[in-house]
Amino acid sequence: xxxxxxxxxxxxxxRPLLDRLRSLANDHEFLGTFKNxxxxxxxxxxxxxxxxxxNYNTGAYWIRSTDIRGIVLWxxxxxxxxxxxxxxxxxxxxxxRDYIEPEFIPLLSHQMADEARxxxxxxxxxxxxxxxxxxxKPIEKWVQLFEFxxxxxxxxxxxxxxxxxxxxxFQTVELTATVQHRGVVExxxxxxxxxxxxxxxxxxxxxxxxxxxxxxxxxxxxxAERAWAKYATTPEMRxxxxxxxxxxxxxxxxxxxxxxAAAEGVDVTL
Amino acid sequence: xxxxxxxxxxxxxxxxxxxxYVEGSNGVYTAExxxxxxxxxxxxxxxxxxxxxxxxxxxxxxxxxWNLATGEGWFPGGRPAPPMRIRRE
Lengths: 270, 89
What we know:
The complex is a heterodimer of chains A (270) and B (89).
Chain A: H1 3-24, H2 28-31, H3 37-47, H4 49-65, H5 68-94, H6 105-128, H7 140-153, H8 161-187, H9 200-231, H10 235-264
Helix pairs in contact in A: 1-4, 1-10, 3-9, 4-8, 4-10, 5-6, 5-7, 5-10, 6-9, 7-8, 7-10, 8-9, 8-10
Chain B: E1 8-14, E2 17-24, E3 27-31, H1 42-45, E4 46-51, E5 54-59, E6 64-67, E7 73-74, E8 80-81, E9 86-88
Antiparallel strand pairs in B: 1-2, 2-3, 3-9, 4-5, 5-6, 6-7, 7-8
């Protein structure tokens, strides 16, 4: 069975959870039950864990069956993603500088440096595989995903709503990325054919890279935890956070499945 | 020491509260859903096993191990880990 189709089936099972999350964004009575922002953060991570498991599987299932062609396609989209993430951050701290909380500027700058390093490494992996980003056209779902955070945050151009919403959309993607990279690292050894032949070095570098950036993505997600712990102290703010985090969570999962579908040459309904 | 079949762990949320439910060979154990150390969801990063009839969970992020009957935890090398909040069903 196609990996993308298997993941699409798993994704259908969590649609009710995402629908529930959407309705909870409008339930101020429920959102008022958390004692503080940190409790809200921890509830969010626990509540969405079934979706995170699917994101883990996008890495795990894929690496178990892919080949050098699949790695190249994955890495091309991945490189574009790093560039896009960096562009979003650059816009956030310039065009929206009046709405970014000053204490987060160094953190976002650190993330920008990380994304630039990730882009650099991914392009090196492509070179090692005899490929490049030249002529690459990104998958539409990924374009939508990276357009979304500033669009959603800009619905509330006031402090600290913008920061909390932006983190909700942008760093939630990092949360899903963390578990996906772990899926790759923990399952790569099961694909014996990847470790043989002329492209074994590419596989080795990809897995090492996935291990490295998992830590970075985890740090990037922690920026949202910090923003929510500090600002998500009212039902209204928590509602605004979920209105950005939920679509981002859904779209980042769908985009990962779409990437695998494109590599397999299959159509999936998501 | 006896290692029996692997327990199964799942996070369930009711209202604003979420818990980790682990079905062991002699009952269900309930604990906090996130690793007490790095706060990662244990149904994503946890590996569950039973030792002498007691379920344990290992968090694969930093390899802490917790006894789900007592909440005690430790890291490789024996260093104590933050205790896990548990509740026996």
